[in-house]
Amino acid sequence: MLANGIYDLALNEYREFLLQNDNPLITEIYTCKIIFISCSGLLNFNHNMEQKKNQSRRTFLRNGIGAVAAFTIVPRHVLGRGYLAPSDQLTKGVIGTGGMGKGHFGYAGTRVVAICDVDKLHLQQAQEVLGEGVKTFDDYRELIQLPEVDIVHIATPPHWHGIMSVEAARAGKDIWCEKPMTRTIGEGKRVKEAVQQYGRMFRLNTWFRFEDNFYGMNTPVKPVKKLVNSGMLGWPLTVTLNRHTGFDWKQHWVGKTNLPVTPVPAELNYDRWLGPAPYKPYHPDRVHQRFRGYWDYDGGGLGDMGQHFLDPVQYILGKDDTSPVSVEIDAPQQHPDAVGTWRRITYTYKDGCKIILDGEGTDEKAAFIEGPSGKLYPGFRSDIPDLAKKLAAYPDPPPQVTDFLISVKERRQFALNEENGHRSCTLVNIAKIALQVGRSLEFDPERQVFLYDDAANSLIDPPARTGWA
Amino acid sequence: MKKKILFFILMLSCVTLSAQQKQSPYATRINRVLKRMPADNQLQLDSCMQQIAALGINGLTEMACMLRLPGKGDNTALQYALNGYASYVAAATRDSLRTKAVKAWGRALKLTTDASAKIFLIEQLQFFGDNAAIALLKPYLQQPRYSDPAIRVLSQIKTSASLIAMELALDKAKGNSEIALIKALGDRRYIAAEGAITLRASSADPVLKRTALFALANIASEDSEPVLFAAAEKVNFSYDSTGATAAYLLFIDNLGHNWPTAPAQTAANKVLRQCKGDSLSHVRIAALKTIVDIMGDNATNTLTLAADNKDPQYAAAALAMAGRFMNGANADVWLQKGERSQPATKAAVITMLAATKQRVAISLCTKALKDSDVRVRMAAIEASAQMQSPEMLSPLLVAMKTADSTEVKAIGNSLLSIRSRDVSGYVAVALQQAPPFVQITLLHVLAYKKAADKERFIRLLLNSENPDVVTAAKTTLEAVRE
Ligand SMILES: NC(=O)c1ccc[n+]([C@@H]2O[C@H](COP(=O)([O-])OP(=O)(O)OC[C@H]3O[C@@H](n4cnc5c(N)ncnc54)[C@H](O)[C@@H]3O)[C@@H](O)[C@H]2O)c1
Question: pLDDT per residue over A386-399, tens digit each?
């Protein structure tokens, strides 16, 4: 096992370096100075780039996990510019090169070697960004077979996330998957099983539980978690997510009904875009970006923003290994195809903790968190006097692995992974199901089924369409 | 001629009039419901659904037959109503409504000729279809246009009658219908279909072959082992379009849930023996996982051995599995393992024990902080932060005295995670005897903790000979007073 702290520093240093020198030529030219800390002590040597190229990338990665001692790139101010040869970087294949897929190209310390899309135009545009060297595919199954791909990034619409994640795990790849993790609870369970069966690293692409300000709360999640752990607010807690506490539910992501049948554009392989989703005649509203308005592929504003908003709340409440026992809805009836709006969704956990999604922002005075002994509002305002000072005395929450490259190289579970990600996606999915069947539901968090409701249970793992090639 | 025309007009108006008089007895009621679609809330929805229920089988049939051809009218209100009713009758205690709904659907399916309307109706059966719906669906199981939704519904019905219907349909099914039936029978683990599916497992069509292999894997009958093994072996346990390797691994995993478990274990060991290459690390891991799942609590020895494997991915996966099976009893075994292991493994064991919050990790960490290997020491420092145990306070502060700058920083971070009100007190005391760099780190801890009650200790450092320490002490004093 690498000395993680040292490794952290090395990567931070390296990240900083890349930020300042994002010209690939510079990285090609400069010589890497690496300190290897061996079992017996420090061994400092200049590492010549040419020599390094000869070392196989796979061997480097393999050795990165423990066989060789920890390494750190010596800070720039000591040795000049640091360097990590392309052959030592983690490689990735990106499936889905639409709006978000392109955002997956740039993470430092990795390079894209393959891309896949079922829309030729999107693929072409992505290739123009990445250059000729990148391999292109229209079938993700070919991409995930490439031996040179370490990490498979999945940035397709949600109805593909589960199937592609499972296949990537089976091919021995680590996975960086877009939110929402899966469109159904059944798919989520299978992703979790496959990732663990094949010993893969999985990260879900939302990050508020470990970095950035938590939307309109205007504060990172860490101090909020610390506050909840301190017990100062009491227990059980109620969390309200509405526009007054900083969360916009994007209710504009609704679908349209009575869509006219439209010819499929030549550049799109619509059958493969649909994949596991039931066949519905093509209309441009169903696909790129706008798929969010249809149950077969996503779940409106709730599907789009739900896991961004709910995952940190699940973490804050310490519910990463469980699910609510009930979900109550106040919403207009939903169309079987097109997602509609909703007014209020209330989750209740066994211990009485509640999460309220206030879609219309009716609770103007709601606190973000309310407990028997105190409330917390956006900007870390509270009715507890001197909160910041009092809180300082309490312990920080335990650290998490928040750099996926560390996770991959050291085989350490990422902060937001297949287990807690499945649970926070289940929050989204049980509410979607309640909306779809038009009633409040009771849920068994252990068995992950609804109580006394066949219609709701039929949506937990609905059979997929077969026969797409 | 004029007379003839007049007569014709008269006849036409009579026919229209009589048609109007014969207007369906349900039309007004149906329209009233449709006008209220979509319902604004659950109360309204329930009331609308009760009105639909009151239409009876004939009224409901009529309503279901009102779906128009695409482009020939707007079906939206009807879709709301029919879908709403499909999920309404599937709720508990509505069995008699459900039975009537299935009957109405059956009639409507016969009367409806438009394909999109038929598909819509079939798809709604996924919510409330039961054994009575099977007969309605049988005619569609081999029809390319309808087989996919019909099979999806049968798959959801999950009774032996629905499985038999699918098994019989498989005989003559072709193309997508065949694939969908095999998948559904596999998903439902229908052992009676094993023979028919095995025949397809050697198909030259990779999609059919793949579907059959996974179906056999799900059914998990011991008899399928040779077929599945041969398919995986043929592709050298690599990933291919037929998914042969994944199917075999799924098979042995499912087999491990059957009794006796020995065949699954034998198969998994065979995989471990045959898959040696670097690129098959994940295949070995999957086989190990099956063995460990079968052995349960008794897997500790297997895992401790696996943790020493020269393939670091495999070793790391073994530790992750150990973490999932961790309890007080095997934690002691891991403690001993950690104490006796090489540095890399020792560090990994420490991390695993801490992540699973095992108290034994405290003693291991305390010793590990003095280890000669930096990986072990760093793992112990990070583990202390994970465990948040106050018992780690003293050992961490002692370790700081001999630590290098990276470790000192890491210890500083760990101190912030310790669950004790005494952190500031311990830090303040340690502050005085520490080397300058450690003093600066500890001052940061006090500043972060806003330890105003430790001002006295901080002020002492204003007299330090080291100017950096003096600056840090001043900043800390300001921070704690804020
Ligand atoms: N994390 C974030 O902040 C964030 C932001 C935006 C979007 N997203 C997520 O990213 C995903 C994609 O959203 P988007 O806005 O980029 O949508 P998009 O429609 O712009 O892109 C999706 C792409 O996937 C392609 N695709 C569909 N099926 C495919 C298949 N079988 N194989 C290969 N390619 C396929 C489409 O052709 C399209 O190019 C969604 O899950 C969305 O929720 C996340």
Answer: 999 999 999 999 99
Residue with tokens 């510079």: A26
Q: For residue B278, how far is its CA from the centre of ligand 1 (angstroms)? A: 32
pLDDT digits (tens, 9 = 90+) for B385-411: 999 999 999 999 999 999 999 999 999
Residue of A97, A102, A117 best suited for mutating to test ligand 1, as the one with most atoms within 8 Å of CB: A117
- Find the radius of gyration of the CA atoms of chain A: 24
**ipTM, 2 dp:** 0.93
Tell whether A120 is covered by a domain.
yes
Cα-to-centroid distance, A143 and ligand 1 (Å): 16
Q: Of the candidates A6, A58, A169, which has its C-beta nearest B406's C-beta? A: A6
Q: Whose CA is nearest to atom 3 of ligand 1?
A: A206
Q: What's the domain count of chain A?
A: 3
What pTM was estimated for this model as a whole? Answer: 0.90
Residue A279 lies in a domain: no
Compute, in angstroms, the gap from residue A206 CA to the centroid of ligand 1.
14
pLDDT tens digits for B213-248? Answer: 999 999 999 999 999 999 999 999 999 999 999 999
- Cα–Cα distance measured from residue A236 to residue B15, given in angstroms and rounded to the nearest whole number: 71
Local confidence band at A258 (pLDDT 50, 70, 90 cut-offs): very high
CA distance A168 to chain B (A): 10
Are A395 and A355 part of one and the same domain?
A: yes
Query: Residue A434 falls within a domain, yes or no?
Result: yes
- Residue A85: pLDDT band (50, 70, 90) is low
Quick one: chain B helix, strand, coil %, rounded to 5?
75, 0, 25
Residue with tokens 């470990």: A210
Domain carrying residue A188? 87-205
Same domain, A226 and A315: yes
Tokens of B337: 């393992």
> Inter-chain contact A395–B419, Cβ cutoff 8 Å?
yes
CATH code (residue A316): 3.30.360.10
Q: How many Å lie between the alpha carbon of A30 and the closest alpha carbon of chain B?
A: 26
Residue spans of alpha helices (H) in A212-269: 221-230
**Given an 8 Å threshold on Cβ–Cβ distance, is A199 in contact with B316?**
yes
Residue B318 · residue B306 · CB < 8 Å: yes
Residue A151 shares a structural domain with residue A296: no
Residue B26 contacts A where some CB pair is shorter than 8 Å: no
Q: Does residue A423 sit in the same domain as residue A290?
A: yes
